[in-house]
Structure formats: structure tokens, C-alpha cells
Amino acid sequence: AVGSTQSTGETPVPDILPLFHDPDESAADKFKEISEAYETLADDEKRKTFDKHGEEGVKKMGQGGGANFDPFANFFGHFGFGGGQEQEQQERKGSDVVVDLVVTLEELYLGNFVTIKRDRPVYKETGGSRQCNCRMEMRTHMTGPGSFQMTQHRVCDQCPGLKLVTETEEIELEIEPGMIDGMVQKFSGKGEPHMEGESGDLYFKVKTLRHSRFHRKGDDLYTNLTISLQEALIGFDMNILHLDGHKVPVKREAVTWYGATIMKKGEGMPNFENRNKLGNMYITFDVKFPRGELSAEERASVKAILKQASVQTVYNGL
Fold it and tell me: Where does residue 266 fall: left (phi above 0), alpha (psi -120 to 50 degrees), or beta otherwise?
């Protein structure tokens, strides 16, 4: 029947747990004193309290025993046997599952809703029953006046039979504007199942695809713009297409040198915590030089226009 228990065997405790015998009627009280002393020595906090305040200090910590004090439970508990009481069961749970949520920079700028189909294993009940929640229990037996012995028992419950099947489920995900790499969305109980406990959790971890034009750092966007030598010298007027399709104007009238960077305020990514706050866009210029050779007349014209003296300097630029 569900919830019933059964013992599958009785194992005497190893030699470290001998048979205790004391004809004195106060054996339990004496053993209690021994176990308390052992517990004080085994506990760093209690030992420090004892060193400073003595036995009274330890008692004031609320560890002095009481009506329900079990000296055998305290003593044998230090050896990991549980002292005749059922050991506290560790929470059983299936493994967590972490899945990369691959998204585009456009989705992180605008936001999006996506539906993901996932096959996952689940346990279904079948006919019959099975042993479950098995654990070891320690029991104290009185073998005579003032004599006690500890024995170890394996105890199991009876649970319905289970089988593992695969189910397909749809999961709705929201990609929020401003999310960054490494952020996770948690779906409780959607991870790996456990036969005797709850299923683990499912985590979707944001991972951004590489973009052809922009690179993201925090809430800022970085891009490179190649212009001709002529545009670098006389200026230019153009637009950069943003992630949502709007155009970012870039106009230069002064000379633009190779490696120069300009900032366009408020043209970066939205902030995840405050969507009204936007990062900036940084544009770094590359200059494409013409190929071929200039004629003598063209070289003379360039010199006449630039009127620039030689600045040939050798230096360590690293």
C-alpha cells in the first residue's frame, strides 16, 4: 500500500558501536554526560564557548538537553548513523538543463516573442508498484537491564510503478529589449525528471549572434566606416542604417583622418533596467587610398592644394 514501510534486513553496528552495559540505574544519565562532553569537543563554536565561559556557557546556548534528549542519538550521530532516529532525507531533484538562446542584435534592440519546441523525458505511472524513498535507520534495542545495542535497518516506501516517456512541449519566451549575453530565463520543473523527486529546472541563456555592422559593449554600439581619400579630405554626407531601420546621419566637412572616432549620442542599445535610457554609437573611420600612380602634373596639383611640409618621423608606436 502507498506510504507503507518495510524492513529488508537488520545489520549490527560495526565494532565502533559496542554493546553498552552498566548495572547502575543511572547509566543513561552518565552516558548523557559523556555524549554532551563529546558533542562540545566536536563542535568548534561550543568548544570556544566552553573555553571562555565553562559548562554554564554551553548550557545557555540551549544545547543542555531536555525531556526528549536521546544520549545515544547525540553520540552515534557523530559517526553518521543517525542515533536511532530517521535520517533527514536530502531533497531529491532532477538535473537542471541550460540551453543557449541564440538571438540577433535586432531582437535585443526591439524585443521579440519566440516559441520553442522541445522534446523532454517525463515519468508516467504504470501498473504495479516499486520500492522508493529507501533510507537507513538506526534503532536502539534494550538487551537487558542497563544494556543497549544499536542496529541498522534499510527501510523503503511503496510507490506506483513508473516508466520514462518523451513528450513534446512548446515554450513561450520573451526576448526583452536591452538583454545582454549571459542573462537567463528560468522555467521551474522543466529540466530532467527524477523518479523520486521533482524535475530540475530549465534555463535559457542569452547568446548574441555576430552582427555584420555593429559590435555591442554594454549599452553602446561600435561600428567602422570606410571612406575614400577624397571624402577624408573634403568631407562627406551619408546615413548609417540602424537596427530598427531608422537612419543615423553622418556628416563631415573637416578633414577626417584614418582611425578617427566620432560619437552619436543616444544611438546605442536600450538599457535593460530603463528602456528610456539609450547608449551611444561610436563610429571609427577607415580611409581607402587610391591605387595606381599620379602623373607629374597631378602630383604638383596635390602639393599646391595641401601645402604640407614633410613630416617623416621614425618612432615606436606600440
Answer: left
Give the tens place of pLDDT for each residue, 85-142: 444 456 788 899 999 999 999 999 999 999 999 888 888 888 888 888 888 888 887 7
Q: Please classify residue 196 by burial: count the beta carbons closer than 10 Å to its beta carbon, then call 0-12 exposed, 13-18 middle and 19+ buried.
A: middle
d(CA 138, CA 85): 6
Q: Cell 529507501: give the residue.
A: 134
From residue 254, alpha-carbon distances to 97, 128, 228, 235, 236 in Å are 55, 85, 14, 6, 9
189-192 long-range contacts (CB < 8 A, ≥24 apart) are 190/97, 190/120, 191/94, 191/95, 191/96, 191/97, 192/94, 192/95, 192/96, 192/97, 192/120, 192/121
How do strand 281-288 and strand 220-228 relate by DSSP bridges? Answer: parallel
How far, in Å, CA of 137 to CA of 134, rounded? 10
Provide the mean pLDDT of the chain. 80
C-alpha span between 303 and 290 (Å, rounded): 17
**Bridge partners of residue 261, in order along the sequence:** 284
3-state secondary structure of 168: strand
The sheet with strand 261-264 has its strands ordered as 215-217, 220-228, 281-288, 261-264
* Strands 184-187 and 97-103, bridge-based pairing: unpaired
Output the pTM of the full model.
0.62
What amino acid is encoded at 53 in this protein? H
